[in-house]
Design goal:
The chain has 125 residues and is mainly beta. 0% of the residues lie in helices and 49% in strands. The chain contains no helices and eleven strands. It is globular and about 40 Å long.
Length: 125
């Protein structure tokens, strides 16, 4: 079964850090662009960051650029999001997603095939 499972969310103080993980099973991430999305209550889901299937090209939402770092470990079939300098505005459910895009050096914030169930990140005020 194709599955993505997020972990690492929790409650942190402003300025704190979290590292989210997304473990893939049923497929191999190396042929996929993979990304992180988030959705706060009452708001639409938005793209946070993505990384291409080849070359490690990364893209970030303006709101997180310089604070978050996306990475992938193809050997572990896992995606990560290191979140530093967290703000209350970062509070959301964070989802990982995968888009088949082999031999591609870029990634979009749309069209993803597979989605995880999400992990809650809460940054207290």
């Amino acid at each position: 079964q194709v599955q993505l499972v997020e972990s690492g969310g929790g409650l942190v103080q402003p300025g704190g850090s979290l590292r989210l993980s997304c473990a893939a099973s049923g497929f191999t991430l190396d042929d996929y662009a993979i990304g992180w999305f988030r959705q706060a209550p009452g708001k639409e889901r938005e793209g946070v960051s993505c990384i291409s299937s080849r070359g490690g090209s990364t893209y970030y939402a303006v709101s997180v650029k310089g604070r978050f770092t996306i990475s992938r470990d193809n050997a572990k079939n896992t995606l990560y999001l290191q979140m530093n300098s967290l703000k209350p505005e970062d509070t959301a459910v964070y989802y990982c997603a995968a888009l088949r895009a082999p031999y591609t050096y870029s990634c979009p914030f749309y069209g993803y095939h597979y989605w995880g169930q999400g992990t809650q990140v809460t940054v207290s005020s």
